[in-house]
Write a structure and sequence with these properties.
binds zinc ion; 114 residues; 5-stranded antiparallel sheet; 5 strands; HIT family, subunit A; binds guanosine-5'-monophosphate; 2 helices
Length: 114
């Protein structure tokens, strides 16, 4: 996916403020943070939306959540609380079509979201 922003961050073509990386998953700070902690956890594999997940991606999506759990702990959010979100397609406000798990925390988060 040559024109995918998050593939470019994953392969180093575009710099990102990276907080975690493994062979399969990358996490970096959101460029426009909506909370004191706002990290995006992405698979290195290009998957456009949650609709495009395949059963073979089960472990990958699990790993993404484990990474979010770890980063939340590093930010001392485990007890106070945090939120993880996937936005899927336009009605949910997805703007980058390479799946990313938002990790938000460090303030009280309203529910339901807007
Ligand atoms: P979505 O709306 O698709 O769920 O979330 C996309 C997120 O990517 C937004 O929170 C936006 O601020 C973030 N974002 C967009 N472009 C960049 C970028 O170039 N670098 C980083 N680090 N985040 C980005
Ligand atoms: Zn991509």
């Amino acid at each position: 996916m040559n024109d995918c922003l998050f593939c470019k961050i994953s392969n180093g073509e575009i710099s990102g403020d990276i907080v975690y990386e493994s062979d399969s998953v990358l996490a970096f700070n959101d460029i426009n943070p909506q909370a004191p902690t706002h990290v995006l956890v992405i698979p290195r594999k290009h998957i456009a939306t949650l609709n495009d997940l395949k059963s073979e991606d089960r472990e990958l999506v699990g790993e993404m959540h484990m990474v979010a759990q770890q980063i939340a702990g590093e930010h001392n959010l485990s007890e106070s609380g945090y939120r993880t979100v996937f936005n899927c397609n336009d009605a949910a406000g997805q703007t980058v079509f390479h799946i990313h798990l938002h990790l938000l925390g460090g303030r009280n988060l309203d529910w339901p979201p807007g």
